[in-house]
Write a structure and sequence with these properties.
This protein is α/β, with parallel strands linked by helices and 759 residues long. The protein has 31 helices and 24 strands. Strands 9, 10, 11, 12, 13, 14, 15 and 16 form an 8-stranded mixed beta sheet that branches. Strands 3-2-6-7-1-8 form a 6-stranded parallel beta sheet, with helices on both faces. A 4-stranded antiparallel beta sheet has the order 18-20-21-22. Helix 3 (60-73) links the parallel strand 2 and strand 3 (82-85). The structure holds a DNA duplex (15 and 10 nucleotides).
DNA sequence: TCGGCACAAATTTTT
DNA sequence: TTTGTGCCGA
């Protein structure tokens, strides 16, 4: 085990294996390395069995990465070691023993959408208008109660005098009841029920306490009270608990993360050994100065100061633009410039913003500039309607008690079972204290239903019965394929697609898109079946569990692209060049935080700013605009206070002097029209550099795109960042182009050329 | 039962 | 501006 490459505090953190340890790990201080080395040290040097180690992270990505890196360090197999997210760890525990607290072991996991549906149902049942009670608000109150381990009963007692909260308490109570009846747990329950299991079953707790002799928790600043309690229950006896976190990077307070957990770790455990990792291996000193300076405006924090041995560095550049369109163009021109002058690859860049809505303007600009990009976030694969529908079928196959899923699919595709029928079945179900599915099963004896309705219901039940028996012999992928076909779901989409085609209304067929997504689901299932990393049996239930607990279905990113994401999403990542856009009051810090007038809210925004800044390794650009159109409304914007909080000697204000902004109005409009109109109708993203498709089908103007390979001296460039021009010479990807009003310019075909013939 | 239309809401989201 | 939701008429 080589510990020499570690710095002194890092080594200390690795070798201090006994007793409670708090590692305050600043951004970029190598905490993952410390954690993985520590695990390796435990196994190789301290001869701790992998089975006695528990490492908890927040994301699957982090968990996978950690396991991979531990595997690189240690000889022995890491199979027996638990490296999990909080949630998957709890699922593993619950699958074994949840029956001890009265739940069905084949429970399903409800995601946020299912949760919302169920809450709405509960409100309806209690005759609580969703006009008076904001559903979102109710959900967050329930969720926050669960995070704090407040049971429905205690919640009710606590708010006895508050009429409004009393209603919420009723919803909470009914909601929990329904979850149980559906054999379902929501994300919060996974933690809460595990704690309940531990508290009510000493032997179970004892078993895990004894098993997990060494516990490590990553991103400790993001733990909720419930997660804190889960860890405490396991660790309080042997006290070999090592938590890693950075209070300055706590940006999920609104999701129940309790910053007190890290600030008060010393009070919760005795003789805590504290290690501060302050040496940053990621960024230049200039960038760190900026970050340190910003964060020093916060009061509630453990003092720490990042430093780097990478002295100096380029100054942080601040640029003010007129509006978000210019802002996007600015970003593009800088990217273009750095790609050309400094031979940067597109992978080197990230554009970070506060709200997803900002992405559009950036995207449009990148499209116009023909720079390929990846957007992170947005609608997730598993949240797409068609995927959720298919998953709902699978869930009902596993667990027919799941009313929410039954209701989702009973009339999808349309089979003539309307709202009235469903309502009747629901009423009957709640009267008989049974699941909807079981009521459907004996529709024949149901006098509420017309003959017609009975027939329809029986049709559905027949399909489901066939599927349920098929599940016993089919693999997951086969079952998905079969479900798509048997239920007519696929045919429904195909019919719609064909109908659309006939109308040829120019719209890209979203139906084909959905069909593709379903095919993607099948290949995910195939991957699952062939994967060696999946824990447990490879049955349908395990598959659903994997689906429920993972958000990122996207895989390979071979091509070099600029990354676009929110600042929240960027946590844990790093990029040589970072753009932080939209640095304006009421956007960042976000208006709610400004209006709330609470320091807590602003401080969290500031931490977010700290996170964003520390993503940058070498260069950082910060932009703000004077006029921002957001949600279709134009607003005059004021520069963010965070800009004023930057240290003067680390920054430099720059004006726009870049040629890249000089699109002619006409070019601009055409490009914009093109990108919007045809992007989707091509079989590939034609703006990405691997342009394969050259013809635009159904193009009313009758124009063609030309393969980049065919561009040579004499070719006409109809659209580029400089407008129209003629190619004078070509040398590989470098073009020399003559422009009517700009003279001779150099363009790189990979990024800047967009040739359109006969427009 | 379904499509169309008016109306409202729109931070951030690891699981 | 975009997206979702609820209500109404065919």
């Amino acid at each position: 085990m080589d510990l020499n490459s570690l710095n002194a505090p890092q080594r200390d953190a690795v070798m201090r294996t006994e007793g409670p340890v708090l590692i305050l790990a600043g951004a970029g201080s190598g905490k993952t390395r410390v954690l993985t080395t520590r695990i390796g040290y435990l196994i190789d040097e301290k001869k701790v069995l992998p089975a006695n180690i528990l490492a908890i992270t927040f994301t699957n990505k982090a968990a996978n990465e950690m396991r991979e890196r531990v595997e690189e360090t240690v000889e022995s197999s890491t199979k027996d070691m638990w490296i999990n997210t909080f949630h998957s760890c709890c699922v593993k525990i619950l699958r074994r023993d949840i029956n001890k607290i009265g739940y069905n072991r084949s429970f399903v996991i409800y995601d946020a959408t299912d949760q919302a549906t169920l809450v709405k149902d509960c409100m309806k049942e209690l005759d609580i208008s969703d006009k008076l009670f904001d559903v979102k608000g109710v959900i967050s109150q329930i969720s926050s109660a669960k995070d704090k381990l407040i049971s429905p009963r205690r919640f009710k007692e606590q708010y006895r005098s508050d009429v409004r909260m009393d209603k919420v308490a009723d919803i909470y109570t009914l909601y929990q009841d329904r979850l149980k009846r559906n054999s379902a747990l929501d994300f919060d329950d996974l933690i809460v029920k595990t704690i309940e299991l531990f508290r009510k079953n000493e032997d179970v707790l004892k078993y895990y306490r004894n098993k997990f002799r060494y516990i490590m928790v990553d991103e400790y600043q993001d733990t909720s009270h419930a997660q804190y309690e889960f860890v405490r229950l396991l660790a309080c006896e042997h006290q070999n608990i090592c938590v890693v976190g950075d209070d300055d990077q706590s940006i999920y307070g609104w999701r129940g993360a309790d910053i007190k957990n890290i600030l008060e770790f010393e009070k919760d455990y005795e003789n805590v050994h504290i290690v501060k990792l302050e040496q940053n291996y990621r960024s230049t000193q200039v960038i760190l100065d900026a970050a340190n300076h910003i964060i020093s405006n916060n009061t509630e924090r453990k003092s720490k100061k990042l430093w780097s041995d990478k002295e100096g560095g380029k100054l942080v550049k601040i640029c003010q633009l007129d509006n978000e369109i210019d802002e996007g163009d600015f970003v593009c021109s800088k990217i273009d410039e750095l790609v050309r002058k400094e031979k940067r690859s597109l992978n080197d860049f990230a554009v970070l913003y506060r709200a997803n809505a900002q992405a559009r303007a950036i995207e449009d600009a990148l499209n116009r500039a023909m720079i390929s990009y990846n957007i992170y976030g947005g609608t997730k694969f598993y949240e797409r309607k068609e995927i959720k529908d298919l998953i709902a079928y699978l869930r009902v196959i596993v667990n027919p008690q799941d009313d929410i899923s039954v209701k989702r699919i009973i009339n999808v595709p349309a089979r003539g079972i309307g709202l009235k029928t469903i309502e009747k079945m629901e009423d009957r179900a709640s009267l008989k204290q049974e699941s909807i599915y079981s009521v459907l099963l004996d529709a024949e004896d149901n006098s509420d239903l017309s003959t017609r309705a009975k027939a329809k219901v029986n049709g559905f039940i027949d399909i489901m019965s066939i599927l349920r028996s098929s599940a016993e012999v089919y693999s997951v992928s086969e079952l998905i394929d079969y479900t798509m076909k048997l239920t007519g779901y696929l045919k429904d989409l195909e019919d719609n697609r064909d109908k659309n085609e006939k109308l040829s209304n120019g719209k890209y067929d979203e139906y084909q898109d959905r069909i593709d997504n379903l095919k993607e689901l099948i290949s995910i299932a195939l991957e699952f079946e062939n994967s060696e990393e999946i824990e447990g049996e490879k049955n349908l239930q395990t598959f659903l569990e994997n689906v429920a607990l993972s958000s990122d279905a996207d895989g390979e990113e071979s091509e070099s692209r600029v990354s676009l994401m929110t600042m929240h999403t960027s946590k844990g990542l790093e990029f040589p060049v970072v753009f932080i856009v939209g640095m304006e009051e009421n956007l960042f810090p976000i208006s709610r935080a400004v209006k709330s007038m609470s320091d807590t809210a602003i401080e969290e925004e500031r931490r977010l700013c700290y996170v964003a800044i520390t993503r940058a390794e070498e260069e950082l650009f910060i932009t703000n605009v004077r006029n921002r159109t957001l949600y279709g409304k134009r607003n005059v914007a004021i520069q963010s206070r965070f800009i004023e909080e930057l240290p003067e000697n680390s920054i430099e204000t720059i004006g726009v002097v870049d040629e890249g902004l000089s699109y002619s109005r006409a070019t601009y409009n055409v490009l914009d029209k093109y990108t919007k109109k045809y992007k989707k109708s091509m079989n590939m993203d034609f703006l990405s550099k691997n342009v394969k498709a050259t013809k635009i089908e159904g193009n009313k103007e009758g124009s063609d795109l030309t393969l980049k390979d065919s561009v040579k001296a004499g070719s006409k460039i109809y659209h580029s960042k400089f407008g129209k021009g003629t190619v004078v010479a070509r040398n590989g990807n470098d073009l020399t182009v003559a422009f009517a009003n700009k003279g001779i310019k150099r363009l790189n075909i990979e990024y800047t050329v967009f040739e359109v013939l006969s427009i």
